[in-house]
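Posting this for the archive.
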Amino acid sequence: MKSKFASLLLLAAAASQLGSTDCGQVLRDPGFDLWCGDSLCAWQLERGNIARVPTWDAGDPGVSFVGDDVAIAQLSPVTSADGTCIKYQMITNIDDNATVWLNIDVEGDGSFEYKQQVGASTWQPVAYHLYVQAPFDGIQFELAKTGPGNAVFAQIQVTIDDDANCSSQRPIIAAPRPDGAVCGVDSDCRSSLCSASQYGICESCDSTLGTVCPSGQVCGYESPTSSVLAASYACVADGAKQLAENCVLDEECATGICNGVCSTCITSAGCPNGETCGQAWTTPNADGTVRSIGPSVCAPNSSLQVAGAPCASDDDCASSSCVGTVRSQCDDGRACATAADCPFDTEPNENGLQNGPCNTVGVQGGSCQ
């Protein structure tokens, strides 16, 4: 039976369908104006080299693809809730001996569902429409070039357009979706399992539907594999998760206790010597309120735990030394290495094309020294 943490999974799934654009704009830095040193700030260099160069206007820089095999990409949080008709406009300077493609990866999972060759031009604007069949959670846009010729991009504007303008377009249909993607029916998913919740998401197991995991495993929490995907359910090894890792069931945790994350207590009754069970850390919201997406431990931040006792921060230990893996997580509690792992902002007045923060919060699997 799924724990109360299932509600957090459903919340994450619901959030993934809210959509996120910047007043209809689908991409950050469509004019390639934002540079972090020799790299574009909003675009990922996948291969090859790029350079900042002038365009027809010396004051309006563009990006030049340097070499015979170059690609940049940007994952956008645009979803079918925003719209399914997408218009993109480009201004480019491309030589005849350069082959340039716009590649579309629905869900950003590594499978290109659409490729459009961008023809040779000299600062001539071109425009196309794409109809992307719902549902989808995000799209990765890749610009790729092969061949020795010159290719400079001055602009790529991608916007949500009126559905009528895509009425003649052949639909782009996402490949079977990964776990954590929105779905309507089982066949939408690689796992062939779409959850029966109000907000359907692809998952690898569902104990409420009678899914049976192999011996020594339970149907537990599966971390999102992308910033545009939600958490889901998959078969995980018994007791494999450390203190502070996300969980659904007690059986997932080495501590034997799950409170949304692997913990050492649920109530103070589970603590020795009259200690209080509490949250190991708290996370501030943008509006100044505080929420907690951390483990419950005995006597948090009280410097009472002796050597060998479990801990989630240095302040838990009498020695002031909690040894384990540094824990960083997004605002929704998922583990992260950088902000690129975190969901995009969807709050009103926020920049919906910017990933939320990846904050260092404490220690995972910690033990007092």
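The chain has a mean pLDDT of 89. The helical segments are 6-15.
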